[in-house]
Amino acid sequence: MTEIQMTVNGKAVRGTVEGRTLLVNFLREDLRLTGTHVGCDTSQCGACTVHVNGVSVKACTMLAAEADGADVRTIEGMAAADGTLSNLQQAFQDHHGLQCGFCTPGMVMTAAALLKENPKPTEAEVRQYLEGNICRCTGYHNIVKAILAASGQDVSAIAAE
Amino acid sequence: MPKDSGIGASSKRREDIRFLTGAGNYTDDINVYGQAYVHFLRSDVAHGRIVSIDTDAAAAMPGVVRVFTGADFASVGGLPCGWQVTDRFGQPMQEPAHPVLAQGKVRHVGDPIAAVVAESPEQARDAAEAISVEIEELPAVVDMKAALSADAPKVHDDLTSNLCYDWGFVEENKDAVAAAFEKAAHVTTLELVNQRLVANPMEPRVAVGDYSRATDESTLYTTSQNPHVIRLLMGAFVLGIPEHKLRVVAPDVGGGFGTKIFHYAEEAFCTFAARQLARAVKWTSSRSEAFMSDAHGRDHVTKIELALDADNNFTALRTETYANMGAYLSTFAPSVPTWLHGTLMAGTYKTPLIYVNVKAVFTNTVPVDAYRGAGRPEATYQLERVIDKAARELGVDPIALRRQNFITQFPYATPVAVEYDTGDYHATMDKLEEIADLAGFEARLAESKARGKLRGLGVNCYIEACGIAPSNLVGQLGARAGLYESATVRVNATGSISVMTGSHSHGQGHETAFPQVVADMLGIDESMIDIVHGDTARTPMGMGTYGSRSLAVGGSAMVKATNKIIAKAKKIAAHLLEASEADIELKDGQFSVAGTDKSVAWGDVTLAAYVPHNYPLEDMEPGLEETAFYDPSNFTYPSGAYACEVEVDPDTGRVTVERFAAADDFGNIVNPMIVSGQVHGGLAQGIGQALLEGAVYDENGQLLTGSYMDYAMPRASDLPFYTVDHSCSTPCTHNPLGVKGCGEAGAIGSPPAVVNAVVDALRRQGHDITHIDMPLSPSRVWAAMQGE
Lengths: 161, 788
Hints:
By secondary structure, chain A is an alpha+beta fold. Chain A is built from 5 helices and 5 strands; from the N terminus they run ββαβββαααα. In chain A, a hairpin with a 2-residue loop joins strand 3 and strand 4.
């Protein structure tokens, strides 16, 4: 067992984990931050995406011990303290970018990383950046639209609704 | 002007707030104090006899609570099948036992053999590896036609063969259909495969069984589309727990697409083990387990023949389909290739004579059951592909051939037992031609050609039957369930409302759309209404959500219950206003006396119902809560026309979808935003089937596509923006909302459009290709171009 400590959504946390404990399990089971989801076991689906030291990471592919000392951000840390959705989260609601909601935390975290790297992405760049995130509900139409809208681009020409 | 609330408004989804902030409550987020964890040891061979199971070493591993094997379930019921099909000869289908844990034999890779319950998931998994199982491997049957040969190994030793049933529909028409083919001026024949798919909701299945010794009550938290169905099947047929001692909760569910309808072994196991151990037991599927334990979809092999007269009118249709059941009968498996498939073979066309033959076959593969569309995509794919082929053979325009044969008079009784109430197939085709800009195709073709790409256009129609019904009819067809829906409208003293629905939302947005209906009827704000679903302890007996039935059936129950509320509320208002009940009008949340300025507000009436100081107690009970059950008199029949434009790379065979347009008639629409989203998702699954997806077994029954590394899920870069339209509306005539259902349309209508488009692209280039089986992977398309 290993003692670890990190900052999660601005709060200092500590825990004792097995060497094999994945970051996603530490977040979900030890910290009860269940917004980060597990959708596969081959690092393909991206439902577990979080930010570690500002970089998007699949939390199923990183050991909790590797995140010792890191600054971690999860979906629970994306809205303002008073609950106001971030611009990106609000765009997902406004443009119906989610249905069952299971892939949504990973989509939001990945999209946030994209917009940080590339504040005005093209449609093709958005689609390419989402290659590690699978959604089975939306057909991606409204996810891509929401991300383009969150970047401040006019999406009114994209097929309505 | 778009509406901003009520029916027809694109109200933003209220459930999004919790999903966007990580506050959803999915089954894996639920932990019960003191719970243990189960790991299932699953068969790694497709077919074999269990010689011995030694669990001693596993039982001694750290943290192990108990190891279960088939012996523990010898006296427990098997998983029941909910639909009995009667074959061509009047005999019931062959129906094998489906044990919770294997009894003596394993029949597919993934069949559960033993289960380890331990203090942690890791300890359970480690201990499962210490179980020693000796299996005498038997030859596996994978190919359906081979499975029906006389010397094929039998999946079930106690059945006469691997044939589940040989179904003919309509059997009495068989000879007349044959005679029509004799007289035909032209016959088009096509053999095709509708490949096996895996539904893959992003949330893997999870089950948490809990038991209270204090009350002798069991609770199952599970990833289900229909908690009451699970309660009935598991309680009555598997574990023998009466309903009042069994609660099933399906909280936030991360997508279903059909595969979360069914009752699964893991649900029964967790409930059973929790009772045995008097502590909660949790199972969380890995994605790898999901691939070999979630019911798969499709897997039909079909020969279809279309007969036409000299004027190109369709005169008869005949199909022969082999439908894979897998190793056991999943809950509704027998209904999919029969009543959900044969009844749709008329499509949107006035073909007078139809005969459908289906042979359902057991193989050593994962059970197959309903997946988005369930039978209707298979029917649509065959029909729309063979029509396209016929048009090419006859040298006529495929759209014109379709239009010529459209049904135009309604109601229309098809020769396959169903009656379409409404539709306007020319209108949706007109709309499609407009929104897909078919007039601009030639210019886009030239532009593609200039870039060295082969462009093709595929167009087709579809019809779907939603809201399966009525119960007395489906009972005659073999359903072992009713197919009504329920709703309780509970009006609280201060006027807020809880609507308890028997349907279930796992992405469809009921929590937003259902209040729009009730708010519209009462003239109050949507925010005053909440939807309660997914818990047998909180909702009336309901059949859940599948087959695009929630609004058409569940919504109708809600309308019925709300009408009862309005009727009672008007009586209360009449008393308060000292007026005749017949003179009371409800508008914008106000009850008024017609022709006067006297009125009382919604809240005055609801308060009077619960604080009945000034109330006709001698005539009426206090309170304002009503329940209704709605059993539809017919299916609903959404329809539409779809167009796909593809580009094929002549060097690699890679297909890209450049444009996709869908013109649908869903009848009346409650929330256009949600409806469009449903279509988008269906299109992605249909395009995924056409180009990418496919579950593949080798000849030994090993699943070669057991993860996202080798089962190709559609990703954002595989898909375009879609153009969807649902302005063509012929409202359903037999439900109170005039709605039809939109959840499956996209997945039903899109595969033939894509394949038609690819064939078109290749033929324009001079390739003599009439068909390529899905998925149209680069290798398959390239091979077809090489004449292989």
